[in-house]
Structure formats: C-alpha cells, structure tokens
Amino acid sequence: MLCDKITDGLPQYVLHSPKMKFLLPSWLKPVTMRASWPPLKRTMTADCTSLLKNHLPRSDAPLENIRIFAKNSVEYLEKLGEKLHEKRYIYGLFGGLDGLNLAFSMESFVFGLLPNHGPLNASDLMHNWMFSPAGIAITVVGTIGLSFFSALGNFFEEKDQRAAARFFAVYWPYVRDVLKATKNTWRGARNALQLVKMLDKSSIPLENFNAMSLGFGLVMGAFSASMRVAIRYMDAERKRLSKQNEKLLKEIKALKYNDYTLEKLSEIRAGIQTHSLEKRALRMSLAAVNGTVDTMYLQMGMLTLVSLAPGVMIGMTACVAVFSIALILGRIHEEYEEQRKMRASETRVLLALAGKEVALHFRELQSMMLDSATSEEELEAKRKAMLQAAQDFQTHQKTLESLTAPTLLGATMMGVRNGLSANSALSGIMFFVAAILMLSSTAFPPALLITWVSLCMASLIAFSVHGMISHLLQKPETPAEPCDMGTQNINDFLETLKAQEQTIQNLDPEAIEHALNDSQDYDDLPQSPLQDWFEVLRCLFSGAGKGEKFSDNILVRVQVSDDAGHWHDTPLMFAISAVFALISAPIFALRALANRIGKNVADRAKTSIIEEIEDYSDSPDRLATSPALGEDDDEQDDDTPEQTEENPENLSQTPPPAQALIHPQPLISHPVSTEIPVPKRSSSQSPVFSFFSPASPLPVRPSTATGITRTSDRVVDSDSDHCTSCADNTPETFDDALILPPAMPQGTPTTVYAASPGF
C-alpha cells in the first residue's frame, strides 16, 4: 500500500528544508524519494510512513527536536541491542577478534619479559622468531586455538544443557582473566616503577630498572591472576545463591491460602542462602586490591606517554592520584552494592516467611476462638506466637527498607562511578589518538595529555555533584502514619486481643494474608544507564585500537627492515590497519551494546512477562471480568446495564471488587461476603506494622446472627428479600452494620480493628 500524504504533524520549516534528507534516521527502511525538494514528496510503504512520523522531530523548538530525536535513537539502540543479545552472533564475532588480539598481545608480553640482546628490541626479536618454522607453527596453532576458544566461550551461555557448550561458556572467562590479569598487572607494575623513576631519577638506577620491573611485575601478575580467579568464582557463587533465594521467594508466594503449615515454612527457611561475614569481608578486600592494581595499569600509564616539565608533572600526578583513589572507592562501592542486593534477596525471603507465619497464626487463632473446647491458656499461647511473628515481620520490613532506600553517600558514589565511566571513554579516545600518532611517527603532544586530564577531572567532579544534587532535590514520598501497636508491651497487646475477640472472629484471614503480601513490595535502587552507554563508547574506540594492533601481527611479513635490523611498517600496512580498525570498532561497540544494554532490556521484558503471567494465574476469575483483547473500556461500559434503583435485578450482577477476585474463598462460608480493597503499600513508605489499628478498611465477615451484608450501595438482609436501608435505626456506616454483635441493637456503633494500610 502506497502512501502519498505523510506530512501531517511535521513542522513547515522541516518540510521545506533542503537539508531534510539528512534528518532522516539511517535505520529507516529503503525509501524511494522523488527528486523535487521542496515540497517533500515521497513514495513509501505504510510502515515506513509510521517510522518517519515517529523519528522525525515534530516541534518547532530546536531543543525539543533534539530531545525527541535522541529519545527515539536511544529506543532504537535498545531494541537493536536486545535483538543482538537474543541472536548472540555478535558475541561470537567479538570472541574471535578478542581471542586474536589476546594471542598476539601475549606473544608481545612474553618477548617483553626477555632481556635485551644488543641493539634489537623486543618487537624485533618477536618479528625474527615469527619468521622461524617453530615460531610460525606456534603462532598459527596458538592464535587459531585461542580465537576458537574465545568465540565459542562468548557465544554459548552457562545455562546451555550441552556439556561441550557449557564447558566453553564456563571456563573461557577464567582463562581470559588469567591472561589479561597477568599481562595488565605486569604493565601496571612497570608503569608504577617508571613513574617513580620519572619523579626521582636517583631512586631506581637505570641498570636495575629492567630487573626490578621484571621481578615485581611477575609477582604482581601471578597474584592478580589468582585474585581474578577468586573474584570470578565468588561472584558466580553469589549469583547462584541469589537465584536460589529468588526461587524460594517464588515458592513462598505460590503457596495458596490455607495450603501450608509451620513445618513447611520451617523447611523453606532452612533453604535460605546467605553470605557469611567472613566471605563478605574477603570479597570487599579483593575489590580494594583489584582497584589498586587497575589504577597502576589504567591511570599511571597515562603519565608515561610523554615527558613533562617538573611542575606540570607534579600537577598531573596529583590529578592521577585523585583518579586512582576514586577508582578504588568505586570498586569498593560496586562490591557493596552487590552485597546489598544479596542481603536484600535474603531479607525478602525472611519477610515473606514472616508474613505467611502471621497469616497462619491468625487463621489458627480464629479457628480456636470458634471452638468452645479451646482453653484460655491455649488462646493466650497462640496470641503470643502471632505477636512474635508480627514483630519479626516488622523487623524484616525495616531491614528491607534500609537496604532499598537511597542515601546521599550512595548517590554520590554512583556519580563518582559515572564519572569514572566517562573517564574510561575519554581514555579510550586518547589511546586511539596515541595509536594514530604512533603510526604516523608523530610525537605525543603534552597539550593533549593536559587536556585529557582536565576533562577527566571535570567529568568526575560534574557527575559527583550531579549525583548529590539529584538526591537532595528528590522529594521524599509521605510515609505511612506510624503506629506503636506493633511494638507496645506484649501484655497490653494481649489484653487488647482479649477485648476485641468479636472483631477477630469477624476479620477475613485470607484478606489479611493478601494485605501482608502487599506490604512486602520494595523496589530496588534504580541503576544509572550512563555507565552502560559510556562503556559502549569506550569499546568503540578500544576496538579500533585493537584492530590496528593485531593487523600489525597478521601483516608481519609485509614489514621491511632497515640497516640496523629494525622492522618498520609499510604504507600498505597503514591502509590495511585502517580497514581492520573500521571492522573491529563496530563489532566491539555492538557487543557492548548487546551485553550492557540489550541484556538488561531483555531481562526486564522477561521479568514483566513472568510477573503478568503469575498475576493472572493466581486469579483466573480476573480474566472473566477483564475486557476482551482489542475491546475498550468505554465500549464495555456502554453494553453494561445501568445499575440504579429502577433496575434492582442488576444489583446482584455487580462485578466483585479486586480483593474478592484475588481471594474468592473465605475461611468461613457465608451467603454473601463483601470485601473492601486494601490500598497497596508503596515501597517508599516506612515499614509500619500495626497488626490491629482503628478505622482501617479491611474485609470483615458479617455477623452470623444478624446476617446483614452489603451489595452495591444498599444494605440488604440476607435472610429476607426486603430492603432495610429505610429503617430509622440503621447504622450510618458500613462497618457498623457489619460487626454488630448478636445482643446489641442495630443503632449501636462499634469500632472496627483491622490491619492498617501500612500493613
């Protein structure tokens, strides 16, 4: 179907702009455009028309146009990353290139450890060795094997059921960590010693520098490699424990009403996975050491690129010291956030168990009250057990709120981490520029290093201040009104329960359990997406630099030597290196897009679908009352007969409220049971557990003596057909009519004690 009129809703200055074609997003489907500009006349399919209207700016304000275009671009990139993550082909391509680069860099690392032999440097020695038969065989076998291992390890997932695929997915990250940690730590140790030598030339003699850097670098490299293996193993174990806690939480929530016992809850409690204090302290220490090692490689290596004046060198060193401290603190905070999430998963399970225990004790207490053979001692013991479970519920609720509540320190550290991510992107750009300058035999300008350090410092300060201000300007939500009923003296509370025995008998235990479930919803702290986008930008330039590097190793036979025996690149190698850089840069960037952004989008979509399925599976009657697919609520309202006093037959067809749909079976059967929806507690409200508080709208079972219930807006006697709303002595409040004891006249108001909304 062809569309001729597609200009509705677009600004006139956009339609008549000769630059209109440059505003079109590059991801639009191929469009056949007519040559006349303006007016804008095109021939395109209907779906292309929709894409054009969605992506082109629609406002006459330039800033609004930029905002809309940026928003649409981000949405498209998120969808692209999600598709790349689902297909996983980009992971295989990245793995092949990454293994190729790692193989060549390890060869350079090995030859860098060897002592100098006359005028030849490590690069010349490696070049001569690669021309030998043994060098050719080892290089080909090692490069192909490592690239193949890397490609399969990145393509497959750990959850794959095939043994071979799972082997590659599980063990490749450990192999890569060992190789990368050894190489980078040795270089970092060499950079640290070189920086000390630059600041104080007399501290390390020149003849001892190579020996010291070799010994120190190898020791640090071995320690770093073992540390990375331990970190990855502990992180994998923590992820496994968190998943087990999530399974336990789903199992607890799946327990149906009146379908579990204390023994079942105790069995579930025994399966809660926790991290001991010793493991948490060890992991925090490893995070600090890991950050220290990374600073030597990432931060201190910048100052070794160029020689600076003493005054400038001291200033740059001070800035790099600030970056190093920020990086160490960022790694510690990152580990703290992971431990916080682990503790939150444990607390959620404990909170759900406490809620089930409260509901179970209440059901048993209500049944015991209805049984005349129950002694007062048994009732008092059950009341104490219920109160203890209620206090445990409140304790876990407060703990979970403290673990999920934003803090000023956390917001500031999140800003610091965003600034460090921006610095890593700037570092990738600078290293790429340095590689280009090295290929063109141009000295690295000191002004470029000073500019880089200034930009990194500005970004670190800006993001840190932004995190603080965003937290301070955030308006806190009004917490629930506090109540001391849950923390008062146990004897006073027991006396309250004794005095309100009739109230307890009329409360609906199923609705109380539902209110307990509602009070357990706590959203985790939001994560900033800036770090993911900065990582994509960093990988873009990092891939370009790595493409240029491993092209030199592939084209080693194209190099030419001079009279001194040194090997140099040819103009043909420069052109081929540029092609390799253009190929590897988008592959590295798209892999980061899929792994850091597309994976998160896919996980959120999967989680929302699972939650929606679970909600509908828990309440199948909701499907009968919900509108059909594609049917509007307005159309459904038009087809519903008007419920007025002139149509009394329609009053019995009133759709049940939401709580009745969720819990259709009351504990004690009755001809009619009316339920008032319990307002759901937001996660930002303070965890107040007042088990019984006045004037709280919870479902209350009607008195069995009076048989009075409420349908729609009228009070009807369930034992007769006539309306009693016209009686002079009818109570004015619905709650008063529901819990009238048998001996009281109908005009006597009675206070209802039920669970509070903060429940």
UniProtKB/TrEMBL annotation:
<keyword id="KW-0472">Membrane</keyword>
<feature type="transmembrane region" description="Helical">
    <location>
        <begin position="308"/>
        <end position="332"/>
    </location>
</feature>
<protein>
    <submittedName>
        <fullName>Transmembrane protein</fullName>
    </submittedName>
</protein>
<keyword id="KW-0175">Coiled coil</keyword>
<feature type="transmembrane region" description="Helical">
    <location>
        <begin position="572"/>
        <end position="594"/>
    </location>
</feature>
<feature type="transmembrane region" description="Helical">
    <location>
        <begin position="446"/>
        <end position="465"/>
    </location>
</feature>
<feature type="transmembrane region" description="Helical">
    <location>
        <begin position="134"/>
        <end position="156"/>
    </location>
</feature>
<feature type="transmembrane region" description="Helical">
    <location>
        <begin position="420"/>
        <end position="440"/>
    </location>
</feature>
<feature type="transmembrane region" description="Helical">
    <location>
        <begin position="89"/>
        <end position="114"/>
    </location>
</feature>
<keyword id="KW-1133">Transmembrane helix</keyword>
<feature type="compositionally biased region" description="Acidic residues">
    <location>
        <begin position="630"/>
        <end position="648"/>
    </location>
</feature>
<feature type="region of interest" description="Disordered">
    <location>
        <begin position="612"/>
        <end position="663"/>
    </location>
</feature>
<feature type="coiled-coil region">
    <location>
        <begin position="231"/>
        <end position="258"/>
    </location>
</feature>
<keyword id="KW-0812">Transmembrane</keyword>
